[in-house]
Amino acid sequence: MSTRRAFTTGLLGGGAVAAIAARARSQAAEPALAAPRLTTPAGATVTPQGELAERIRLTAERLTRGGRPAYTRELVLADVALDRRRRFWEFSGDLSGRYLEALSVLPPPGGPDLRALASDLLSYQRADGRFGDATLPQSR
To answer: What is the DSSP letter of 18?
Structure first.
């Protein structure tokens, strides 16, 4: 048994290691997301290769296929709804904004309906254009 596996088994227990290995095998059986074709500001189309393509693929899988926390509609909307069940509810817009931006640049197959999600997020926008706690001072 490798040192890493012995450490993980001791830390998590044998059952947890088996569950992690089973999840890794099931994810390996899922079809991989294709490398995106990106358009530069100048209008050229670029297809990332190598390490960059792999990192983009891993990010797309993380954002659309689960993980902890899973990026669900409820999680993303809780970011702007100031849901006090969230771990950090004193601010809003960071997670949802980054999530929407990442998926708009890389719309992976099987991802969420971004138009519907954006519409839902905008329903939480305040009259002054901001999201979040109305008692916080507006930064200039």
So the answer is: H
Beta strand extents in the chain (DSSP E only)? 38-39, 45-46
Under 8 Å between Cβ of 102 and 59? yes
What's the pTM value of the predicted model, to 2 decimals?
Answer: 0.59
pLDDT tens-place string over residues 18-70: 555 555 555 555 555 666 676 777 878 888 889 988 888 888 888 888 778 88
Structure tokens at 93: 């817009």
Contact 63, 99 (CB under 8 A): yes
- Contact between 118 and 100 under an 8 Å Cβ cutoff? The reply is yes
Residue ranges per structural domain of the chain: 1-30, 33-122
Backbone torsions φ then ψ of 6, nearest 5 degrees: -65, -45
- Are 89 and 82 in contact by the 8 Å Cβ rule? The answer is yes
